[in-house]
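Duplicate of #3305? Posting structure anyway:
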């Protein structure tokens, strides 16, 4: 196996082996896709594709959409219609990530076992991304399935963490 390149990234995740509840994990994974969860985001994509937003301030438009989503979530909470996620019994910290891999802080995985995991991402907007992983060893897992939009955000986050590490290394060389 070729060497996996990791960058430091302190993240928290909840997970469980998929054999414990595979159908329910698959259902939740699908429900958390951008198409199922984000009606206003889909509306915005269609409006952008039609050119209806070409004269709009994109940053302001994105902030307004996120505000609308937050109001929708608060309305659901008040109406007691909040979408509850499955309880994942295991929790640990991720200390490093790669474009296709994660590295856990502690030895928690079994080689060859598939897991369903939700990773808390420090992105805008803050959210948990659902993934399916396979244990390569006790600390390293390979991403098996991730939604397209989440993968783009994941890759952007990995690249941003790489840039931080490069800046830190350059700063240490100057000292």
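Output from current build:
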């Amino acid at each position: 196996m070729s060497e996996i390149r990791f960058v430091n990234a302190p993240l928290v995740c909840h997970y469980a082996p998929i054999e414990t509840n595979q159908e329910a994990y698959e259902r939740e994974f699908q429900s958390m896709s951008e198409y199922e969860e984000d009606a206003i985001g889909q509306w915005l994509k269609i409006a952008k594709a039609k050119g209806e937003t070409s004269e709009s301030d994109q940053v302001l438009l994105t902030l307004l959409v996120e505000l609308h989503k937050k109001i929708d979530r608060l309305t659901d909470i008040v109406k007691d219609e909040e979408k509850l996620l499955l309880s994942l019994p295991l929790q640990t910290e991720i200390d490093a990530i790669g474009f296709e891999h994660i590295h856990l802080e502690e030895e928690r995985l079994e080689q060859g076992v598939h897991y369903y995991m939700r990773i808390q991402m420090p992105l805008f907007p803050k959210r948990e991304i659902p993934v399916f992983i396979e244990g390569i060893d006790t600390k390293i897992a390979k991403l098996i399935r991730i939604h397209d939009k989440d993968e783009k955000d994941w890759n952007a986050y990995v690249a941003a963490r790489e840039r931080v590490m490069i800046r830190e290394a350059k700063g240490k060389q100057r000292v």
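Confirmed duplicate; merging threads. Helices lie at 22-31, 34-37, 39-49, 58-78, 148-174. The chain has a mean pLDDT of 86.
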